[in-house]
Amino acid sequence: MVQATSRKLQATSIEIILVACSFRLVACSSYLCTMNKKVRVRFAPSPTGGLHLGGVRTVLFNYLFAKKHGGDFILRIEDTDQTRFVPGAEEYIFQTLEWCGLIPDESPKHGGPHAPYRQSERKAMYMQYAEQLVQAGYAYYAFDTPEELEAMRNDFKTAENPSPQYNQFIREKMRNSLTLGEEEVTRLISEGMPFVIRIKMPAGETVSFTDMIRGEVSFQTDQVDDKVLLKADGMPTYHLAVVVDDYLMKISHAFRGEEWLPSAPVHILLWKYLGWENEMPEWAHLPLILKPDGNGKLSKRDGDRLGFPVFAMDWTDPKTNETTIGFRERGFLPEAFVNLLAMLGWNDGTDQEIFTITELIEKFSMDRVHKGGAKFDYEKAKWYNHEWIKQSDATKLAPFVQQILAANNIDVTDSNILHHVIDLVKERCTLLSDFTAQSRFFFQSPTQIDIDAIKPKWDEKKNLFFTELIRAYELSTLWEASDLEKEFKELAAANQLKPGELMLPFRIMLVGGKFGPGVFDIAALIGKIETVARIKHTLGLLS
RNA sequence: GCCCGGUUCGUCUAUCGGCUAGGACAUCUCCCUUUCACGGAGGAAAGACGGGUUCGAUUCCCGUACCGGGUACCA
């Protein structure tokens, strides 16, 4: 009996081991095999201007993945191109992340154990790795001037090969440490001849890796050129910097745009040549966000051309002083912006489209990220914002609305009234900026009265009705919307008029035009004095 | 040119070999509302093409086409 039980137990434990093993196998075929490794992701923008939709989406996917797996999200500034430095761009990136609520755990601003997080400040570190590669024969010095490179491209340009590369064949014909001989190289360097360090791409090899989104991707090394690793000014290029920093910062998963896919073999080889192959992060190349109307990556210009924002927030170019509109200033709620970005290339497999950031973190998974690029649809973007405005309560909306109203010279003193107004009008506001037109009349008498909408059907009977309505309302002791409606309708009946014919004129008197929530709600909220005054005013215009 | 990636309604997408191909935005019709919205009901609208594999392909494989990305001492 005891034996039987223990055998049974044994069987069960074997089963458990089997299950565990198969789980392990499955897990190891995917990025989950780094479960034992702390998840650390990074977003590494170059501070050259406003942060684009696609950039923020890359941030978002990084952030969601990190938070989902209890990991860290690092912001690293890739400012290795000093010629492209734009003042204010870095601060703009921080403000954008803050507005979106995607706060890094480590960054130049927040600090962290791997500081500095600005590549320009890490300059000294890169040289040794480049030298290490040269010593090991994986890289070489190249002394070719920009003019010589230009000449090479011209000389070797043919119809079949319009853009010749500095590759395994061409390098034999150029001035570098592979062709020059050791003495000459030492001499040139000691004389202060500017040089770059290039990777020596091997001949006839295949470089493969498993992309988290695309699966296995392979490249022939013969097709890849000898990319510059270290520039003449001593700064690394992206290729070297991304590998060195991802290694030093212990990045576990590297997400970036699809435009980086062709240079992936260079990076893979670098990880290998530097001896860090086992530490290499999992790669994921995110699909691009495309122009709505045709071909190519979405750019700032498309927004200008088609009339929608592309940057997260307003960006003023310090050189031209030109401002490009951002989603924030256009009237988007940060939650809506994040939500719509998440849905560009990802979904949770259900019909749900509205997600809070908490839900996104909970439900996000890389294997539901799309391979194909997505055309940006501004109409759909607005729909997300509208949904968010509708489902947000007045308390949440109030600060945004108050600020917008203030910017439009509408003073709000009573927050109760503001909340009430927001509840009344929010369903007709697609953008936060719509609150101005939709609620101005609650706080100010309309300056423009659409009198033409009343005139055609205006007659003495109606004139009399409104004169009586003034009296009735003046005497009224109750001032709820339902009371006002009741009085209005009773008076209409007494005058043998249909209330419907009178409601439009009444609305125009209060609002100025054919829009807005229920008239009696408006009258109730603006109060007796204001209601009566507005009726009188329009009556004056009609006589 | 070469290399890499992608391809389901106009747009974003679901589908992990069984499909009368589902949802959302936009669009159209109607209802609600004597404003504008919101809301509700409905309509039109898709698997680039050609070969395989299979009892059966949108789904798997190959080719073609098309689209995109890359081809810098830019990222």
Average pLDDT number: 92
Query: What proportion of the residues is helical, as a percent range?
Result: 40-55%
Low-confidence stretches: 1-34
Strand content: 5-15%
| Largest beta-sheet characterization | 3 strands, antiparallel
Straight-line distance between termini: 107 Å
DSSP, total strands? 13
Q: Count helical runs.
A: 21
Give the CATH superfamily of one domain.
Glutamyl-tRNA Synthetase, Domain 3
Per CATH, the architecture of one domain is: Alpha-Beta Complex
Q: Output the strand order for the largest sheet.
A: 3-4-7
CATH topology of one domain: Glutamyl-tRNA Synthetase, domain 3
Rounded to the nearest angstrom, the radius of gyration is 33 Å
Task: List its salient traits.
single chain; 543 residues; mainly alpha; Glutamyl-tRNA Synthetase, domain 3; Helicase, Ruva Protein, domain 3; Arc Repressor Mutant, subunit A; 3-stranded antiparallel sheet; two-stranded parallel ribbon; 13 strands; elongated; disordered N terminus; RNA-binding
Notes on the structure:
This protein is elongated. Helix 2 packs across helix 12 (357-363) and helix 18 (481-494) packs across helix 20 (519-526). With 543 residues, it is mainly alpha-helical. It has helices at 2-28, 53-68, 89-100, 123-135, 146-156, 182-190, 238-248, 264-273, 300-306, 327-330, 334-342, 357-363, 378-391, 394-407, 415-425, 434-443, 460-475, 481-494, 499-511, 519-526, 528-542; strands at residues 40-43, 72-75, 139-142, 196-199, 206-211, 215-220, 228-230, 253-257, 282-286, 289-290, 315-316, 323-324, 374-375. Among the domains are: 121-246, Glutamyl-tRNA Synthetase, domain 3; 393-444, Orthogonal Bundle (Helicase, Ruva Protein, domain 3), CATH 1.10.8; 451-542, Arc Repressor Mutant, subunit A, CATH 1.10.10.350. Strands 3-4-7 form a 3-stranded antiparallel β-sheet. The N and C termini lie far apart (107 Å).
